[in-house]
Design a protein that fits this description.
202 residues; alpha/beta; Rossmann fold; two-stranded antiparallel sheet; 24% strand; binds 5-O-phosphono-beta-D-ribofuranosylamine
């Protein structure tokens, strides 16, 4: 089977991207990262891509007259790489309806909390403030809401009594990266169906 094409959208340090790139070095994994996109210049993720000779693109909201025009540009930039699966790993921007119309059934996002609790960009901070004893990471297909799409996988991570936002964030990221690599591999090798909120990997 030929390897499946991944476009990764990442605007942060890029540790999830790095884990995917590493996994893709094994031909048996079944995927290759064909491009990395960001919403800003100068990110760790773009550096990781450049070091691995992976093409990059930047679609910055500020470079476009409005959000809708940005969404068209982002959609075109991703589509140019004909991805089988688009992975948001710390992209931190909500895409628009045009992007979702094109990639909605194959646009994954990883979130650093156990959804539906603690959606948004401060998952670990909010989980810690609430006092939960277990947090974790959620991998889901993106829909039009904020972290509301059909869930593919979740992994639990214990919250320790002396945790800070930083220590909890780092503990979650370790489990999150492993989950991302494991589940993206299964998706590309085995395929998937989405029926309502239920995601099935045959
Ligand atoms: C991940 O923990 C993700 O859940 C959150 O941002 C983080 C990205 O980390 N939205 P990295 O850039 O992959 O290191």
């Amino acid at each position: 089977m030929s390897s499946r094409r991944l476009v990764v959208l990442a605007s942060g340090a890029g540790s999830n991207l790095a884990a995917l790139v590493e996994a893709c070095r094994d031909p048996a994994y079944g995927a290759e990262v064909v491009a990395v996109g960001a919403d800003r210049l100068g990110t760790g993720a773009l550096e990781i891509a450049a070091r691995s000779q992976i093409p990059t693109f930047v679609a910055s909201v500020a470079d476009h007259p409005d959000r809708a025009t940005w969404d068209v540009a982002l959609t075109g930039a991703v589509a140019a790489f004909t991805p089988d699966l688009v992975v948001s790993a710390g992209f931190l921007k909500l895409v628009g309806s045009g992007f979702l119309a094109r990639f909605g059934d194959r646009y994954l996002n990883t979130h650093n909390a156990l959804l539906p609790s603690f959606a948004g960009i401060h998952g670990p901070r909010d989980a810690l403030a609430y006092g939960v004893r277990i947090s974790g990471a959620t991998l889901f297909f993106v829909d039009a809401g904020v972290d509301t799409g059909p869930i593919v996988a979740q992994v639990g991570v214990p919250v320790q009594p002396d945790d800070t936002v930083e220590t909890l964030t780092e503990r979650i990221k370790i489990a999150e990266r492993q989950q991302l690599v494991d589940v993206v591999g299964r998706l590309v090798r085995e395929g998937w169906t989405i029926t309502g909120r239920k995601v099935t990997i045959p």
